[in-house]
Amino acid sequence: MRTRNGILAALGANVRRHRAARGWTQEQLAEAAGLDPTYISGIERGRRNPSILNVARLAKALGISTAGLCEGVDA
Fold it and tell me: Most Cβ neighbours (<10 Å): which of 16, 23, 38, 74?
């Protein structure tokens, strides 16, 4: 079983990977998702625990499903 920090780190890595695949900066993703760039940074570093609504906003901005963004993020 993963710890809370491990789960958040896995989600953050997924966000970073999908963002980088699009060639976007954190600022560009933040604008597309309607979130603050420092919030994106915190998510990618595993320091933030985003709500499911914000996970869905990120997924939509990245053009993937919420499930796809959470792939491999198991408890």
Answer: 16
